[in-house]
Design brief:
By secondary structure, the protein is α/β, with parallel strands linked by helices. The protein has 10 helices and 14 strands. GO terms for molecular function: magnesium ion binding; phosphatase activity.
Amino acid sequence: MGKHSIRLIISDIDGTILNDQHQVDQELQAQIPHLHEKGIPLVLASARSPLGMEPIMQEFGLLNTPLACYNGALVIKGSSPNYDILIEHSLDKKEIQQLLELVSQHFPTISINLYSGKDWFTEHFDKWVQKEAAITGEIPTIQDLAFVLQKQVSVHKLLLIGEPADIQKLQDYLQNIAFPQTAFYLSKENYLEVTAKNVSKENALLEIAHFYHVPLQQIMAIGDNFNDLPMLKLAGLGVAMGNAPKAVKEQAAVVTQTNNEGGVAQAIRQYILD
């Protein structure tokens, strides 16, 4: 693929544009103005919330670029509290109520976190919530989740956190229960993400490509994990990070350096800027 052919970049955040210390790569920061000059948007796609993505957006100067939050359940443009909603896929509240009751009854040690727009709700400030708050820089609202579901608000994601063995048991348990409008997937070995069935980074890529009127063949997608793989395979140039699992690297078009070695900047330099 020639360097002139990429017109849009979609990238994961954690383990991709951030290193293991959750810091951004300075070379990548320096590349952003050059991408702007070429008219090539860099769109961030992550399981994070708008508030979790905004500091990174501001650090890169991507103020006029959409953010695909909650893996595409909410695509916004601009900063809170006045961001514009471009695309939205909400969870079915009846199914979520059923899920909350099942988890509370059968897996009481698992932390349940509910996300609606920029707001993060949980019932207990436990050790898992503390760790997530430290990573994202967000502070949750402590509130009864059943009460939140009764409000006239959209629910974009649930995040269930616990010990890896407990999360695996929960995932296995949920496979035997019908949730026709809800999807479950692991983003980490102890993180079970819950979104609407049609939410994925693959679908986010399709919707953002349509927003920019860019064909898939002219998109570079970059990621480091299994939930990024459908997006990498759909894009014209799918780039796996050097720190990605072997199976992800094997199915991507190319492999760059790790997130601690400036892998995203290397890919942009090699396939777009040099």
